[in-house]
Specification:
This protein has 490 residues and is of the alpha/beta class. The chain has 19 helices and six strands. Strands 3-4-5-6 form a four-stranded mixed β-sheet. The protein has a two-stranded antiparallel sheet with strand order 1-2. Helix 17 links the parallel strand 4 and strand 5. It starts with a helix and ends in an 8-residue tail after the last helix.
Amino acid sequence: MRNPRRLKTEVLAGLVVALALIPEAISFSIIAGVDPRLGLFASFTMACTIAIVGGRPAMISAATGAIALVIAPVAREHGTDHLIATVILAGILQIVLSLLGVAKLMRFIPRMVMVGFVNALAILIFTAQPPHLIGDQIPMLVYPMVALGIAIMVGLPRLTSAVPAPLVAIVVITTIVELTGWKMPTVGDQGELPTSLPSLFLPKVPLTLETLQIIAPYAFAMALVGLLESLMTAKLVDGITDTHSNKSREAWGQGVANIVTGFFGGMGGCAMIGQTMINVKSSGARTRISTFLAGLFLLGLVVGAGPLVARIPMAVLVAVMIMVSVGTFDWHSIQPRTLQRMPWSETIVMLTTVVVTVATHNLAYGVIAGVNVAFVVFARRVAHFSSVEKVTETDVDGDGTVDQRVYRVHGELFFASSNDLVYQFDYTGDPQHVVIDMSGSHIWDASTVAALDAIQANYAAKGKTVEITGLNDASAQRHGQLSGHLGEGH
């Protein structure tokens, strides 16, 4: 890099992100129910790999709460080997989905589904904390330490942003606990920390259909959630930096990174909204160097200072995750003023996403449900934008009777709006010849063509003729291809 100032910015940004990643990687490992080293190894391998193969420079990928929540049942019910196999399969699925153009489908995810996704993620992270706060084995001293940690993370950023507040909270509370000799759960109690570099790991699972049936649903959910969060974050960074990123490359890059992570014993991951904001917005990073160095610095810190990390009290990590939850939640979306101005349909889309996600503990299910509800709401709204009006009545042969009537159809015609089209005509009272002027409308699907066929059939049953005019080129082509081939009564 030719610009020394830019290089310095990238190096410092990588260091700050690495320091902030340590507590979150450990906390997400605990949420997933695995040893902290799986989360730390995942953060190292994800960051270094995505820095090379990803499509969005300066975006941070590592172990995340979203992925931890998806794969937690695999670790709990089937063990670490099945979890690693799930991560590898999820990476393969992400590559396949990227080649199928899934990145382009991001445009079909409505804003309120994204809001619901973020809010549900925040709720799930928060609800994962009570096991570390409630129980006979939890000493009373845990609660004031959690409160102190939250107070530090709320107050310190108002004084300075030079040092990550979570890191300060960890140092202060760990020091207090060490000096006083208080006994409380520590990171070391959760599992073994790494003392060496990650090595190649091959999951010991039987290569059978039964194994595939166990891991495939979780792998598919992980692939979807990882791509969704990564592409959402990439879009956010595009706006902040006023640059464009290659979303398809980012999608398959996430897959490659998860495969590499799995084969090095990591729990997998995706883009991190919070850490990316630290890197891009707070630290000013703009290149892949910061992402790569964040991974390297993270590995050096945990391998070199493993015994110190093991003595970190769980109370402060709970405080960190509570603050991550609070910071992730979109509080503006539930303000009374926002809810009053927001159409009820948009609020239902958000609530559906949140409720399904929280009920199933699966972010992919929530997003799919939210998108489906959004499409139904949209179809219902657009269905009212079409109309039929009588335009003219003509006495063609001059005998004093009306023998031709012209109808004009307005609006976008598809399955939702065209179903009632067949009931808008007076089959009995209309004259012998009817003209349907389609110049103010557009045919979008086979349902509309079937409706027009039904209209013609109803008039034919009365011995009357119908002429359809004014179709634009696309509508005429679709009508010509499908008319008469959709069966009767459709």
